[in-house]
């Protein structure tokens, strides 16, 4: 998520963040777990809701021995009362959220709840690791104007998804936008968001005044909004901004529980900050494109430090392409596909 930090929003609204393997009680029947990640932002929050004689977990962390051992510690904590997981809800297909889904489902005899698109994305990525997938990746970064050295790096690293995601169950329970899910006797409304992922599930409880926002609304960084190689004509930033407008209908003092960072209760202010942040970036790119630029060249303007790190180029180029596509849809830039196959963008 290569983005600039935002100013502090408020004093912490919850107990100090738990160390890996520990648990914090936020409200009766609502617990917080924090799992480590080997990549930024370094952790993912797992939320546990009392449900059906046990606990419903929201997300799982990436697959690996360390996270499995930490789950063993969490399940043995006194805050859980010796009760098992009785349900699992996965917000979206990214590895830090879905990675241990198969392991937990097999262990407790449950099936995951997900939106259909996120489930199918996960299944497709888990099984699509052959030469066709790699050719698609290379074509994507070639169009973006990346150097041959980076294309070689992409090819050498191979498919990443299976390394962080265990084998998935063959069945699931579908979540749908606007539907109500009963969890522990309470009603939670599914509100889906797009942009960071195509159909990410968030959960809102009017009774508790809580929004479990997944990666849609984060307190200090903007979620990664990138153009995916498999959908080169998409407008993910437009989808993200339109999705976020829906959350303005919730009360400003809603307690937001994000997947990364600390809980906060300044929902409208944060939504406004995210919109302003991306508007500023769009203006920066529109000005820069007075001379034709490739996506890689434009990424060096938006992310001058990160673009110099080989492992970050995919993120910076993907996010830059998402902003360039939004400018196209706004009629502010035109895209030209040169004979060499590289896309170049020029302000109108």
TrEMBL record:
Q: Which residues form a coiled coil?
A: none
- The segment(s) forming the Metallo-beta-lactamase domain are 43-260
Q: Which domain of life is it from?
A: Bacteria
Secretion signal, residue range per the UniProt entry = none
Q: Which SUPFAM superfamilies match?
A: Metallo-hydrolase/oxidoreductase
In terms of InterPro entries, this protein maps to:
B_lactamase-like_C, Metallo-B-lactamas, RibonucZ/Hydroxyglut_hydro, Sec-metab_biosynth-thioest, WH-like_DNA-bd_sf
Q: What is this protein called?
A: MBL fold metallo-hydrolase
Q: Which organism is it from?
A: Siccirubricoccus deserti
List the taxonomic lineage: Bacteria, Pseudomonadati, Pseudomonadota, Alphaproteobacteria, Acetobacterales
């Amino acid at each position: 998520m290569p983005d600039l930090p935002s100013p502090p929003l408020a004093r912490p609204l919850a107990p100090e963040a738990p160390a890996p393997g520990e648990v914090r009680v936020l409200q009766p029947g609502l617990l917080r777990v924090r799992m480590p990640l080997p990549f930024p932002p370094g952790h993912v929050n797992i939320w546990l809701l009392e449900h059906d004689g046990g606990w419903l977990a929201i997300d799982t962390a990436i697959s690996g021995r360390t996270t499995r051992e930490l789950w063993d510690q969490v399940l043995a904590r006194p805050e859980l009362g010796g009760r098992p997981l009785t349900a699992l809800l996965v917000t979206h297909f990214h590895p830090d959220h879905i990675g241990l889904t198969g392991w937990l489902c097999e262990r407790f005899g449950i099936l995951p709840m997900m939106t259909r698109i996120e489930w199918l994305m996960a299944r497709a990525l888990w099984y699509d690791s052959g030469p066709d997938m790699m050719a698609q990746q290379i074509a994507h970064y070639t169009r973006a104007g990346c150097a041959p050295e980076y294309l070689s790096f992409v090819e050498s690293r191979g498919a990443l998804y299976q390394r962080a995601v265990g084998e998935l169950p063959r069945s699931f329970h579908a979540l749908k936008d606007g539907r109500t899910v009963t969890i522990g006797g309470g009603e939670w409304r599914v509100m889906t968001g797009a942009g960071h992922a195509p159909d990410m599930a968030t959960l809102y409880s009017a009774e508790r005044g809580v929004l479990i926002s997944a990666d849609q609304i984060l307190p200090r960084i903007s979620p990664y909004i990138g153009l995916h190689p498999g959908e080169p004509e998409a407008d993910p930033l437009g989808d993200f901004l339109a999705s976020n407008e829906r959350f303005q209908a919730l009360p400003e003092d809603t307690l937001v529980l994000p997947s990364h960072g600390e809980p906060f209760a300044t929902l409208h202010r944060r939504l406004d900050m995210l919109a302003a942040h991306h508007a500023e970036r769009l203006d920066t790119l529109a000005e820069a494109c007075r001379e034709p630029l490739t996506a890689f060249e434009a990424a060096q303007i938006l992310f001058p430090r990160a673009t110099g790190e080989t492992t970050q180029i995919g993120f910076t180029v993907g996010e830059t392409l998402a902003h360039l596509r939004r400018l196209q849809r706004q009629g502010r830039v035109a895209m030209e596909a040169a004979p060499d196959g590289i896309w170049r963008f020029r302000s109108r």
